[in-house]
Amino acid sequence: MSQRRLAAVVTVIAIGWLAPMPASGQRQTQSEADTTSAWTLPRTPDGRPDLQGLYTTQTFTPLERPERLAGKEFFTEEEAAALHQQFTAEGVDPLARSAINLDSAEERETRLYQTNRDDGSYVHYDNELWLRTAVPKGLSSRRTSLITDPPDGQVPPLTPAARQRAADAREARRQRGPFDGYETRPLSERCYFWAHNGPPMLPTAYNDIHQIFQTPDYVVLFTEMNNGLPRIIPLDGRPFISDKIRQFPGDSRGHWEGDTLVVESKNFTDKTRFQGSGENLHVVERFTRVAADRILYEFTVDDPTSWTNPWSAEIPMVQTEGPMFEYACHEGNYDVRHLLEIYRNLEIQAAADASPQDAK
User: Fold this and answer.
1) What is the mean pLDDT of residues 109-130?
2) Which CATH architecture has domain 160-319?
3) What are the domain boundaries of the chain?
4) 338: part of which helix (H) or strand (E)?
């Protein structure tokens, strides 16, 4: 089947599944209820919901609601179907996620296709060729933002302390310069940490597969595009590690509330700065198997020293096929050194150019 025909088939199917997914069982439409009634929740030998498998969270749905959609929590079925068809068409750049911010279909069309905005950089990568998946990226629901609370679909404002913290960090970078040392380079470039890995987990630009393993005592979450280790989450009620120990992914503990897996995480380092957070970040994630091919992933984050209020989001995790490829990051091993060497050479050249002629 060609990609164009596949996109058309996916669009027809999408009309049936683009209804808003239930967050607490109260937003389920009648068609979803009819589908769910014919489905039996699979369970592991110990009786827990079976969450295992490969899932993708890829979507054009933004974390925060675009300004043009202020006050609009959901697209209509017709709007969602039209957007989904446009986003999954053959030739679309999967990285053009900002297209949903544009009100005009014509403007979105220009943004979605690299050939329409060729400024000379198009020869670098053809994103449609190397990033398009077997089931192309579209909309994961009729929601206009992944954030469900606050109702405006926006990350709450930063506290004065968080704004000052961010200003201090900017000033420290300005005084030293971005290439003054390896420690001034981004964590992702140094192969330490990707912010989307979580917790909480957010859709990434590409290689967006998550694998779930499960035993009676542990749940393991392994993200394809990941600089760190898989998250191994104990379910045995053990206490959290000491508050004196801080980690990029925090420290996670899980338990079951009925058929929902609840994962609580804390003990984060202030270096991750998730949406402006600090070391007091507290994350609660909920994983609920709602269909044969779908897990509803919800999270609530709180940090009283960073945001004026807690906030929540939901992201459907849709079952997908493998393989899940190894993401081997080497920039931290080789390229940071080369970047710094290049910058030192540029400094030497600039100093030589600025020297008086008689000093040569």
Assistant:
1) 75
2) Beta Barrel (2.40)
3) 3-39+66-145, 160-319
4) helix 335-354
